[in-house]
Write a structure and sequence with these properties.
- It is a single chain.
- It contains 8 helices and 6 strands, in the order αβααββαααβαββα.
- By secondary structure, it is α+β, with helices and mostly antiparallel strands.
- The strands form 2 sheets. It has a 4-stranded antiparallel sheet, with no helix packed on it. The chain has a two-stranded parallel ribbon with strand order 1-4.
- It is elongated and about 135 Å long.
Length: 359
């Protein structure tokens, strides 16, 4: 229980401070982690890719170069009476397809940037939590070691008193048992501390031997607990908003696909028999008998509604988690103050009385 209290307080409080060169502060751990995190590298690469999507969305299709030959080989005359046409054509997107495609890509970039912010926050929380747990275990390990030393001293005192006839064999056995329990508690917490340090080292991208000793001002100042409301500015909620906007933009783009694009062409025709050259112009457009875009647009709108509902669910869950975390903090806040002001002074007094009774 004490461990949970210490860790809960540490996670919710800033743990930072100045340290010696061989010490690892929270700020230094965060700086190392940001450079080494594969999660952050992946999120940033996705944002860069989304930026390239915008550039691609604003481009037209390449023009087409065409070449035709007619009347070749008639009456075994070879190429003497043929007609040759060389032309170039360009598809012209109508109904604002280029702009709408760019809108889709813009919302995709916005969502990718917000994903980077979310990854940074989540990773920072992970590093802070692990760092704080290491600090907490270090403090607990010191206490366990001190308890082990005291238990050994009590066991030695009990043994001395037993040999002098001032204590029973039962007193000696009880003191020895408490000492063994204290030793086991010390070994257990040291193993937990070693595992937590290994986890922290993996997060910041160093080997445990080179990490240094985590250092920070630990629960020296606590802020009063206060109610916090999850706002729409939270990156995860903003990202869902951008994804919803992107889905609605995709619906507009899909709807515009039912309007066919116009293709214009121009070229030069050569008639070999009369040695005549002439310009050729042309235009073409698909016939929109099948309007697939309306169904794709409806599907995109439904996806937008689903994303909106998912955003509302996330906001509800975040608020519930935050409320529970606030209760945990309030409980820890009260318990810490009681330990400082009531329990620890009484425990110190009891320890002094116990030592006086054995001496």
């Amino acid at each position: 229980m004490k461990t949970n209290i210490v860790i809960s307080i540490g996670i919710l409080c800033a743990v930072s401070g100045f340290a010696e060169p061989d010490k690892l502060t929270l700020d230094k751990a965060l700086a190392l982690a940001r450079n080494q995190s594969p999660e952050l590298r992946a999120a940033r690469a996705q944002a860069l890719a989304a930026g390239q999507d915008i550039r691609a969305a604003g481009l037209w299709n390449n023009p087409e170069l065409g070449f035709e030959m007619e009347g070749i080989g008639g009456d075994n005359n070879g190429f003497g009476r043929g007609e040759y046409t060389l032309g170039i054509s360009q598809e012209l997107p109508l109904s604002g397809k280029t702009r709408k495609a760019k809108d889709v890509a813009q919302y995709g970039l916005k969502a990718a940037d917000q994903a980077v912010q979310l990854s940074e926050r989540e990773f920072e929380v992970m590093v802070r939590s692990t760092f704080t747990k290491v600090i907490a275990l270090q403090e607990i390990a010191k206490i366990r070691k001190h308890q082990e030393v005291l238990a050994r001293e009590f066991a030695e005192t009990a043994s001395t008193r037993y040999e002098a006839g001032g204590a029973s064999e039962l007193d000696t056995l009880q003191a020895d048992s408490r000492y063994e329990e204290a030793r086991l508690a010390t070994l257990t917490i040291e193993k937990q501390l070693e595992a937590s340090k290994t986890n922290l080292a993996s997060l910041i991208g160093v080997i445990p031997a080179e990490m240094g000793s985590p250092f920070g001002e630990f629960y020296t100042s606590l802020n009063d607990a206060r109610t916090v409301v999850v706002g729409s500015s939270y990156p995860a909620l903003q990202r869902f908003r951008s994804l919803e906007d992107q889905a609605r933009a995709e619906a507009k783009l899909a709807r515009s696909q039912d309007i066919p694009d116009l293709t214009l062409g121009a070229g030069v025709r050569y008639e070999a028999e009369g040695d005549i050259q002439s310009f050729v112009l042309g235009a073409s457009m698909p016939l929109p008998f099948i309007k697939r875009g309306r169904y794709e647009s409806a599907a995109s709108m439904l996806r937008a509604d689903a994303i909106s509902a998912e955003r509302d669910r996330l906001q509800r869950d975040l608020q519930q988690d935050l409320t529970q975390l606030s209760v945990t903090y309030e409980t820890a806040f009260v318990e810490v103050n009681r330990y400082r002001e009531i329990l620890l002074p009484k425990a110190a007094k009891g320890y002094e009385l116990s030592r006086e009774g054995y001496e």
